[in-house]
## 1
Amino acid sequence: MKKLINDPGDVVTESVRGFGLAHPETVRVNEDPLFVCRAGGAVAGKVGLVSGGGSGHEPLHAGYVGQGMLDAAVPGAMFTSPTPEPVLEATKAADGGAGVLHIVKNYTGDVLNFETAAELAEAEDITVRSVVVADDVAVEDSLYTAGRRGVGGTVLVEKIAGAAAERGEDLESVATIAEQVIENVRSMGAALSSCTVPHAGQPTFDLGENEIEIGIGIHGEPGRERIPAAPADEITDRLLNPVLEDLSLSSGEKVLLFVNGMGGTPLSELYIVYGHAHDVLAARGVEVSRSLVGNYITSLEMQGASITVLRLDETLTELWDAPVGTVALRRGL
Amino acid sequence: MKKLINDPGDVVTESVRGFGLAHPETVRVNEDPLFVCRAGGAVAGKVGLVSGGGSGHEPLHAGYVGQGMLDAAVPGAMFTSPTPEPVLEATKAADGGAGVLHIVKNYTGDVLNFETAAELAEAEDITVRSVVVADDVAVEDSLYTAGRRGVGGTVLVEKIAGAAAERGEDLESVATIAEQVIENVRSMGAALSSCTVPHAGQPTFDLGENEIEIGIGIHGEPGRERIPAAPADEITDRLLNPVLEDLSLSSGEKVLLFVNGMGGTPLSELYIVYGHAHDVLAARGVEVSRSLVGNYITSLEMQGASITVLRLDETLTELWDAPVGTVALRRGL
């Protein structure tokens, strides 16, 4: 294992510390317990948005803290859910008096720990609503999940619900918008290589010289099948078709097409995948009216990509277009 | 070789096509000859900025086309300079009547081809000035270079000169600003792995299980030395110290600290490098007043990082802070 790290046990704290030093105009790092919140703290009268989960998926979630998106993010240990305590403290730091929305990816540890934190917050008179993102169509139930896994759709939920909160909607309404995104977003990913968790010291799974895992999870959980290396267009079809089937898109509808890198894949390859996915959607009469391409929810240095499609209506489009001022996603601010 | 590509010969055209489809509000792709320009074309009365070079370093350069930065970018074949013809056509597309600045990385092919294109443009009555970026302190002369190589500093030259052009400065003044950045910026990088150029089909160089190349070039050119795997702090010292020596920074000065990923390294590792570099500068009394962390000039899927330090004054800081609206760097737009 060769990595740009010091002690494997210090990776998360050292990395989050560096993140805080690099972006003091946008975020503040609370070291104990560890969470990241907006530089200016909670916004009075605004619904607070908190997300979090195991580290190793950067820029998710700390990269999405800032105006128009999250109020706080809680990085757990590598690929490991944060415990309830930092989630509770982040919830308090995000509370501007209008309640807090927890955005949780559907992994058993995250669901349980955010649930406990929500109960503790309610005991301190903070109203908490939770939504659970489960957009990965690859498999039902998985290594760390009952039901579908939460993956790329999470970035879109955070952006769109964040915009709703920023324009002053109340907790019920922000939660409803988040649920609308969750109902209309689907994803699937493929891995060309494994990744290595620092304290494990060896690859999470083995993949042959000439094998690709279709339907990979963001922690290296098994997908649907292993296939021999294939052209990008074929891999794109194998990811996009199940997504489109599950969404039952009709000709004439508009979508946001999000091609995400797993961390170790060149941007040039992501744009090849994007181009073919765009063509497939056009051939079905579906209009790609918004796009996102890049490394937004990663699995350390894993090579591969995922495709996320979100069905858009006017409200979601307007909220997607709203200004956002985070480290990893910035437009108009 | 496992990659998300179709035919190795189509990687650049397919990728640039996807880039154009994904970002029509920011860029337009000219397919033959291949270049990328602003969606709205040249800005009348503004100095045009053109850069380019071999592909494989994305988001450089096409990701920096847009308001406040480049007017056009010319992607060559993978790791291969574009020929004069597309550079000439991009220069014409970028010309708003106030002349065009070529920003060239110091590689023999790029320097020659941009020089020829500049002569051809002058013959068509477009005034062209050129600046050559040569910020890599690792080695004098290299595999494809007489003198020092142009690396991470290029991103900063494009941003800062772009802001000067956008606020209406003339060609002479924009070139002077670019030269000021070039004089005050230094970089050095390290590789933990090689990368594989698609049409070559095998790694550009061999690096042992436990080896790190210190002073790597962005095409995998040899650096200063190979060392056994070491902690991030030590690698950071080995990159930062030669940069600081070459810049002869004094206590009390301000800098922009740019930690760049080579394409295959997790963001979390880049922030560990950033944190230690920040500490080293602070210990020397140098204030890090601006920062950039991420994959901005890459070498396909290479694992590793480079450190770039730019000495700031008020003018450069103001130009760095100016709004920018490109695909890969966006703030205030």
## 2
Amino acid sequence: MDQLRRLADQGVTDRAALDALLDSQWVGVLSCVVEGAPLAVPMLYARDGDRLLLHGSTGAGALRRVAAGAPAVLTVVALDALVVAPTTFESSVNYRSATVRGPLLALPDDERTAALDLFSEVLLPGRTSEVRPATPKELAATLALALPIRPDGWLMKVADGWPATPAESGAADDVWSGLVPVRSTLGDPVPAPWAVDLPVPPSVRRLTAGDA
Amino acid sequence: MDQLRRLADQGVTDRAALDALLDSQWVGVLSCVVEGAPLAVPMLYARDGDRLLLHGSTGAGALRRVAAGAPAVLTVVALDALVVAPTTFESSVNYRSATVRGPLLALPDDERTAALDLFSEVLLPGRTSEVRPATPKELAATLALALPIRPDGWLMKVADGWPATPAESGAADDVWSGLVPVRSTLGDPVPAPWAVDLPVPPSVRRLTAGDA
């Protein structure tokens, strides 16, 4: 398999492609440095134009550290297909990945409520109008962070397409090769035990109608 | 949304659960430190018992650095469901994540061929017997790395289950809540244009019959 060479070969500079990837996923990996060692934490994120919103508990150590301005990078990956080539050396995966480099900014109190509402709205559009507003206590317990998407602050890599041919691979012509697509899909909503008699709300209906 | 508090709450120490997560995914994010800043690279990996095998081009800078013994951590995440709670504050995701901490070991020449074959076999069992062996030139171009899974070298977090109840959330009883499952599935194999008349090989048939 040959994933890193493909990574190096296929940088993408189209901002629309970056946005499409970021908008298609919910979770990224936030990497930062703590006492010289790498620290990585999976994080929900939501894109708001030229920034990514993240949030977490005010008690979370890693998050407090990046909130204080330590360098950080958020990595988002979508796996699109297994690439079964005529040789193991040429076999790989089709994927899209992006890294967005910080520092993260902790949002001040007067921006936090709006940012957290927006975070919820991006992840599940329409939901904030179906539930009560966050309470002051909830807001006080939540750190809201923004990671700006600066023109020189992101990298995107894409591997897409067919495997190397038998001739390119130095392989016999009768070895099957092709793609095995990998898909992420949303299942039907499952009500909580106390909600089985309630109608599925519009936000959830729209989400699952549109799919992941 | 409240993902980080859940992360902090739900550590898992069951090694079998770790192995099941690692074996269910293909791609992780490798985080290391370069000149004080975090560097993150998506990587294919394959579990071989108590170690994870990774590989890449001998020309890849980040990989050469971690191969030289720099601290590194591989993060693997599976998103299982969106958790739609009666409030935005309690809404979150169900997921499984693992971090496996290095350093990575570069495998010596006499172990590399076997490790790379094993890597291919874990990702697509049976494939190595369907294709020609790797050539000396291919092997020379490929770095093989091992990340030991040490008893004190990994952390797993799991969020699973229903959202907080209306009473726990301080919400009205008539607000729907529940889960939206997220599934990763494999599609039917798609032959490369030059392979449309060839039978799909057993390795690929087994993979897609078993699903992701």
